[in-house]
Design brief:
Blueprint lengths: L5 H7 L3 H24 L1 H9 L6 H9 L21 H28 L3 H24 L5 H14 L3 H12 L5 H8 L2 H17 L5 H20 L24 H5 L51 H5 L4 H30 L3 H29 L2 H22 L4 H31 L10 H27 L4 H18 L1 H19 L1
Amino acid sequence: MAQLPPGIRFITSFSRDQWYRAFIFSLTFLLYASFHLSRKPISIVKGELHKHCASQAEEHAAQIQPVKKPFNASQCGWEPFDKSNYKQLLGALDYSFLCAYAVGMYLSGLIGERLPIRYYLAGGMLASGLFTAMFGLGYFYNVHNLWFYIMAQIANGLVQTTGWPSVVTCIGNWFGKGRRGLIMGVWNSHTSVGNILGSLIAAYWVSTCWGLSFVVPGLIVAVMGVVCFLFLIEHPKDVSCSCTPSSSSKTFLNGASRCRMQMPTLNAKENGKPQDPEMQHLLTDSENCSVSLSSSSVAPGEGRHGTSAISFLGALRIPGVVEFSLCLLFAKLVSYTFLFWLPLYITNVEHLDAKRAGDLSTLFDVGGIFGGILAGLISDRLEKRASTCGMMLLLAAPTLYMFSAVSKMGLEATVVMLLISGALVNGPYALITTAVSADLGTHKSLKGNARALSTVTAIIDGTGSVGAALGPLLAGLISPSGWNNVFYMLMVADACALLLLLRLIQKELQCHADHTLFKEH
């Protein structure tokens, strides 16, 4: 019998369960990348909505004797963003989206727990595609009303909150706790991949027809919503994949809680061979494949996803949720300020056109991919989430100062600093929103309640989104006084994020010292 071709041997070397997990990993990656793809165009188009006039005198003359132009009502940009207060108006667009996103996120996790993920996520993506394209239609229908664009941003911000709790819960259903930081660090690169694709797509049309910079991403998100509806599998049991008893599930915990979980692992061998942590799911149900519904471990009234949904205050009482939520507020403030203002900053400092500035800004997200993976890898090795975040935040503040100074020296230096800054700024943000959220959402106090992860994720990301709303707003208000002041604001935010983690870092280090002492004795 002829030997099987190498490609077929590779395909058949994986089990059915592994192929399903790979499929869900890839699908959720693409789904959330499309969300970020639709958020990026506004930062690219800012340079086209307001163009630098040759002089204030020419701007005044253009307003007195307007020249007939296709679509653009002013040589200084697109009305109403062609005035001298354009930074405040552009900041209002960012603030509208991010404020709506922050408010909606707190509600989204609670709503998402009570609805099927596939329907909830698919509906949100279709609505997001509609409102993203709606902003671009303002170009084709020659709309110059500020409130039209603000309302499009508010509506889009609200519907996009369906994304994050849904995909995190879905990935939590499918993947085990082994190498959680690394796996989720790789998976979380969808944020940067989406930003890069959004930048490239938006930059392609920004100088010729900026309306398409929104319409095309809107269509992509809507199409991915249809894909979500057709193919997303919420839970392994839906396709009869294997799952594990809830009694065998343990999680990485934070601070003192992890200390208390060190010694029980010594008893694992008493019941036989320790289970592979990669096969222990992040979320556990009382209704397991290997446990019948009539089992005494299932309390009356429990549904498909375990016990009743956790309350908002109940989620806040989980150790570490408040600290990491507030830390993410400041970390996301920095990240989203770069997301929404970096292309305009590059345009002003490097004197590039909107397309080239948009292309160059993607390097920040390339650095973010490596930063997220590195943060996950380090935190897995050290088993210290807070300490890993603190180390990267400590390095990020001086790096931002260097970036503000070096970016004025030339294009080559800017490229290097964009990569380094992207890694250090996005590393803690990526780790908190993925691995840390999964750690806290599967805390032992929840007793395997699979519904809790959606609420915990929404609280952490919702609090972070408050910072995401404040950052671009503050940048719009501060930047007229000079870009250096914007960077000072970002450095202070990084310092605040680090301070909020000090208590958890201290507990992790104390835990490590106690564990070392225990092994010595």
